[in-house]
Design a protein that fits this description.
With 295 residues, this protein is of the alpha/beta class. Helix content is 42%, strand content 24%. It has helices at residues 3-15, 18-25, 29-43, 59-80, 99-116, 133-138, 201-212, 229-234, 244-252, 279-292, and strands spanning 48-51, 54-57, 91-98, 120-127, 144-148, 158-171, 183-184, 192-195, 218-222, 240-243, 256-258, 260-261, 265-272. The chain is globular, with a radius of gyration of 22 Å. Keywords: DNA-binding, Transcription, Transcription regulation.
């Protein structure tokens, strides 16, 4: 089994087919197709069912996904074990983050890390469902996951709390809303809202808080892309709940922002396997914890 074959196999799995995998890898479709056929021949198993033009994993294919990810993860970790003349790690560090944490604190922490360890390139993936945070680490998708806490099914992993994320109410420019700041949720105006599908622990918490206050959420637009919430609000589509870092930016762009009473917040932190951390990963955890400490 060759590493490029493993990479092609996982690309087909992650991109739901050979065409999309080839496009993502920047290679010709026959290259990926041939690699999969050779891998199946070498392993003497069928990894995919060919259904029309689609590819569906067989039971043997499912069994290979976890070991294949760990194999590539080990290669990345080995590269991250290299240090420069000053003894600082080099190579690549793979992180995965839930979207609402990307702007803050992830961008800030990666910036602080890169200032201290410029020889390490950081690759950041998207955590679409926070319930899968622990499996992302176990299956070798990354070394470290940023998510809201508590992290499910993480008993065998290390969890480090870094801080608390708060949410604000953000209204389109010129909105006539109660002057109270913070605004009691019980006085939440009956305005249409820009929302995102569930997938993070905070989405359910916001919905429960609004319901406990005797109010409801009336969707104006449902967005798959969380980063698009603010542009939709600024365009007058509706109000939304935004993380404080984004809400502060919204004020500068003309939005009407109110804190919430009672406040809505979630703690966040890192999930990782300390036994599998590369030197780069260990350095990142150190920087993250130092940045999180008061003062």
């Amino acid at each position: 089994m060759e590493l490029n074959q493993v990479g092609y196999f996982l690309a087909v799995v992650d991109h739901d087919g050979i065409n999309a995998a080839a496009s993502a890898l920047g290679v010709a479709r026959p290259t990926v197709s041939q690699a999969i056929r050779v891998l199946e021949r070498d392993l003497d198993v069928e990894l995919f069912h060919r259904v029309g033009r689609g590819m569906v994993l067989t039971s043997a294919g499912h069994a290979l996904v976890g070991p294949a990810r760990r194999m590539l993860r080990n290669v990345v970790s080995a590269r991250g074990a290299v240090v420069d003349a000053a003894g600082k790690p080099r190579g690549r560090l793979d992180l995965v983050t839930f979207a609402s944490l990307a702007a803050e604190p992830v961008a800030r922490l990666v910036g602080a890390f890169r200032q201290e360890y410029p020889g390490v390139a950081v690759r950041i993936g998207d955590l679409r469902d926070e319930a899968s945070a622990a499996s992302m680490v176990r299956d070798g998708h990354c070394e470290i996951v940023f998510c809201h806490l508590p992290a499910l099914d993480s008993a065998d992993l290390e969890v480090r709390e870094l801080g608390v994320q708060e949410w604000c109410l953000v209204f389109p420019p010129g909105s006539q809303v109660p002057p109270d700041d913070p605004m009691p949720l019980s006085t939440l105006p009956d305005l249409p809202q820009v929302i995102v599908p569930r997938g993070g622990s905070q989405a359910g918490e916001i919905e429960r808080s609004v319901r406990r206050a005797g109010r409801g959420i009336r969707p104006a637009a449902v967005l798959q892309n969380r980063e698009a919430r603010l542009p939709f609000v600024l365009a007058g589509v509706g109000a939304t709940f935004l993380e404080r870092s984004l809400a502060d930016n919204a004020v500068a762009r003309g939005a009407v922002v109110r804190d919430i009473d009672p406040p809505i917040s979630r703690s966040y932190g890192l999930v990782f396997d300390p036994a599998a951390l590369s030197p780069a990963g260990q350095a990142f955890v150190g920087v993250a914890e130092a940045e999180a400490r008061p003062g």
